[in-house]
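Final report, closing paragraph on structural work. Over the funding period we assembled a curated collection of sequence-structure pairs, and we close with a single example.
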Amino acid sequence: MGDEWRGILYPASLPTFTRLPAPERVAGLVRWFWIPEWDVEPGRVSRQEVIAFPACNLVVEPSVVGLAGPTTRRSSRDLTGSGWAVGALLLPAAVPQLGVDPGGLRDSYVAMDLPELKEPVTTAMKREGQPQERRARAVEAFADWAEGHLAPPDDEGRLANALARLVDEDPDMLRVGDVADALGVSVRTVQRLAMRYIGVPPAAMIRRRRLQEAAQRLREQPDTELAALAAELGYADQAHLAGDFRTVLGLTPSRYRGEAAQA
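Its predicted structure, as stored:
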């Protein structure tokens, strides 16, 4: 499986899941859109577990628009019956424009009063037609709302976006000082940007990327040696990797590897 599955702990148990790129007109506000759709047999529950990207997600569901804040641990949701959601993984520059403090939203999912977003996206998802066409219309409706209600990033917003992308995409970013040097700013500036726009410290962002990569490797290459993996990801030793796993995922790397194989 490719990088699009990073952060999803048990991809084999996913419902129909589609990730679509953000249209260019909102590429400074949304990293990508994601659309799960499910139809679970009566009496059954499908539990979806993730170690999410350090970001906020704005989500349209049939009954609510919700804003999910950054997480500090593994999160899960139980799916029952039939349903769908259309989510936008927000880039940092978009978050303050929603009138929220991302740090205050850690591990939270709050309802947002945004009928002008909910109605067109819901209409698109309920229209008849091919699934891919329905999803594309929903993304366009979401992008229309974002373009009309959120301003393009200013200089600081673009710097916050660059911070998030650098931490997430460059495996050489192992310390906050590495990030500051790459951006040409001070460590204190990196820390301030992370708290204002993302809601978690930059060191936590780096750890999250490393944990996502560790989980994906153990899932896709179960014969990976833990000591070698820890060294590759910049951990001091295997014990530090295991400690991060237990803190955030609530289980050891070995146990996760076994559970992922069974799933």
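Residues 131-149 form the longest helix (19 residues). The radius of gyration is 19 Å. We thank the funder for supporting this effort.
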